[in-house]
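Handout, section B. The chain below has 179 residues.
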Amino acid sequence: MNLKQGQTIKIQSYKHNGTLHRTWLRGLVLESTDERTVVVTNKTWVIEADGRRWFTREPAICFFYPDRWFNIIAMLRKSGIYYYCNLASPSLFDGEAIKNIDYDLDVKVYPDGATNILDEDEYALHGELMRYSDDLKAIVERTLQELLELIKAKQSPFIRDEIEDYFDVYLKVHRKSLE
């Protein structure tokens, strides 16, 4: 995605019909390779499609992939690391923001490894309203299974030490950005 460590960017999620779903106003790039871009959001404003605004409470390490149909947010809380996995189109950076299309289904992963699939009703409803093609539904549903396998196998980024290492990088990059 050609982003530089320390660069601040926006993150925007759209719906299949092209409407803006959600915007994070500030993310700090930790790493950007051909395989993925890693961004931290911490105490940043988020704007919902309906105009509601909220402020993130804890650091979140976000993983965006140019060739995978999901993105992953690792939230660092006092009670442990929680993951929120969004089934979404591959992400791109257009010079303005990291962007993707949200396909409703989400997986929440708890610190003990337990998972919960969220928003199945929303996926079914939007699939009808926005006319998701059979091919698209097959991709999303296959990707959900692949994601659950990654979680179960504790593959990157579902590794506690990896998340803690990225948090250490964030602290260094953040301090440097304040100089």
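Note. Residues 10 and 178 are 19 Å apart (CA to CA). Compare this with the example in section A.
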